[in-house]
Amino acid sequence: MFGATSLAACAVMAVCTTGPADPVTPDSSFVLTLTDARGGTTSVQLTCGPTQGNHPQGEAACRSLERADGDFTRLPVKNQACTMIYSPVLATASGNWHGTPVKFDTEYSNRCVADAHSGGVFSF
């Protein structure tokens, strides 16, 4: 028959022998950049599965990438109004989607359009 002390010792041993949790390797990881016409560049890191990085709307960006199965040319379009002011930005993505290398670049007429036409992936 086990006493309370014996059960506590067994519980401590079980916790101590399990060791630290294995680090989670993300399913997908990207460096995303926006470069304006003057050469000013903004970059963020985005990982999906689990969502991490410094993308300000990482969860929404990962959902958009899931909907497009990682194909940046098939990202969903958000229904939002944008000005018609031409202030072009070059958007690039470099990384991998579920182990498949991804390289993408395109030009949007302004940051708002980049956000809308990428389902929020380029909303930073």
UniProtKB/TrEMBL annotation:
Keywords: Disulfide bond, Protease inhibitor, Secreted, Serine protease inhibitor, Signal. Coiled coil: none annotated. It is found in: Secreted. Gene3D superfamilies: Subtilisin inhibitor-like. One of its GO terms (molecular function) is serine-type endopeptidase inhibitor activity. GO terms for cellular component: extracellular region. Pfam families: SSI. Residues 31-110 form the Subtilisin inhibitor domain. The keyword Secreted applies. Residues 1-21 form the signal peptide. It comes from the Bacteria. Belongs to the protease inhibitor I16 (SSI) family. Homodimer. This is Subtilisin inhibitor-like protein. The lineage of its organism: Bacteria, Bacillati, Actinomycetota, Actinomycetes, Pseudonocardiales.
